[in-house]
Amino acid sequence: MKKLGILGLGKTGKAAYEYLKDTADTVVCWDDNMPNQSTSLDDDVWKSLDYIIASPGINLKGHKILELGIPIIGDIDVLYLHNPDSIFIGITGTNGKSTTTALTSHISGFTACGNIGLPALKAPKSKGYVLEISSFQLDLIKFFKPKIAAILNISPDHLDRYGSMDNYITSKLSIAKNMDKDGYLLLNLDDSILSTYVNDFSHTNVCTFSLKNKTADFVYQDYESNLVGEHNKYNILASSAICKLLSAQQIEEKLKTFKGLSHRMEFVGKTNGISFYNDSKATNKESSQVALNALGNIFWLAGGRPKSGGIEGLDLSNVQKAYFFGEARFAFGEYAKKLGKNYFIAETLDEALKCAIQDAKNGNILLSPACSSFDQFQNFEDRGDYFKNLVIKYINDSRR
């Protein structure tokens, strides 16, 4: 890997350049959105590269880069190839990846990186890496062979990019494509999709985990933890199973000290009988459903830029009243109306929160948007931080 190209100069691409610039003979870069670049994809230097490292956010379908015929990989492959003595754990799934990755890192002492926020190529040298891997990142893998891989669940997501559910499932399952009998693939036996693939991986060791099926290899125990909700029981179970396969020590003790991640059923505070939860990471209806199942007496804030299917099919039995904002507000309102649920249409998150506070004399105000954030915010973190600041200001003002 001496002559390399980098496609995309976002967070991943910039990290790749910094990682490789002093060791490769040639590193050239291209970003579709940057004008006046010093090189062109038509230049001879691009035609002589060994590999191109692409950012996962770039949809390569029909991209001009494919005409070069150069192998395309991602940053996860680069990290893997440059650290042959390290242990690699790969975690994917539609929901729960970040919490499971962070918890596994907390227990094992391995470095958490990847889609969790720290680019793989910015991670410090480590004896082991716990990688949160999105489907977009999996699509770029050619070499990565984890010691342990876990697929937490699969439900519809990113169908605008994949075109069909079958394509999306294939992407998720590809985390195991390079594994062998020295590795372990963990599958959620309670997931209606994954349970049909348990016997399809004869090239590696398959282990199952379950909250309900006692025949699974790993069955949930009543661990003491700060994490709430059934969905977090799955995250705890997957993480503890990975760590048992690693022969990690003090699993139960370390579970007790894990505080959880921001924007994922994060308790923000309580005042005047109202508890506030920030679940801004819930960018699809499946994620919001697990949050709605975890609490009672909910005053639900939801909205943003809707994904395919909106919130059709959601069980709102724990919702006292819903407050919809952003681009999705009217469509979400129609669904609540169909169910006979009380709801309020707001322009913004601020307005939705103010109305919820007025109505919720006691109960839980939950931000769980079931939407992407890009209509009014930069990302889900920006949205969650904005919500937390509003809540903290209200709590402080109410105590004066």
Any descriptors?
Rossmann fold; Protein-Tyrosine Phosphatase, Chain A; 31% helix; 3 domains; alpha/beta; seven-stranded parallel β-sheet; 400 residues; 19 strands; six-stranded mixed β-sheet; globular; single chain; UDP-N-acetylmuramoyl-L-alanine:D-glutamate ligase
Strand order of the largest sheet: 6-7-5-8-9-10-11
What would you call the structural class?
alpha/beta
Number of domains: 3
* Helical proportion, percent range: 25-40%
% residues in beta strands = 15-25%
Number of strands: 19
Stretches where pLDDT is under 50 for at least 5 consecutive residues are: none
Average pLDDT: 96
Describe the largest sheet. 7 strands, parallel
Cα Rg: 22 Å
Shape: globular
Summarize the structure in words.
It is found in: Cytoplasm. InterPro entries: Mur-like_cat_sf (IPR036565), Mur_ligase_C (IPR004101), Mur_ligase_C_dom_sf (IPR036615), Mur_ligase_cen (IPR013221), MurD (IPR005762). Its EC number is 6.3.2.9. Pfam families: Mur_ligase_C, Mur_ligase_M. This is UDP-N-acetylmuramoylalanine--D-glutamate ligase. With 400 residues, the protein is of the alpha/beta class. It has three domains: 72 residues, 3-Layer(aba) Sandwich (Rossmann fold); 175 residues, Mur-like, catalytic domain (UDP-N-acetylmuramoyl-L-alanine:D-glutamate ligase), CATH 3.40.1190.10; 133 residues, Mur ligase, C-terminal domain (Protein-Tyrosine Phosphatase, Chain A). The strands form four sheets. A seven-stranded parallel beta sheet has the order 6-7-5-8-9-10-11, covered by helices on one side. Helix 11 links the parallel strand 16 and strand 17. The longest helix is centred in the C-terminal third of the chain and has 19 residues. The chain is globular. The termini are far apart. The mean pLDDT is 96.
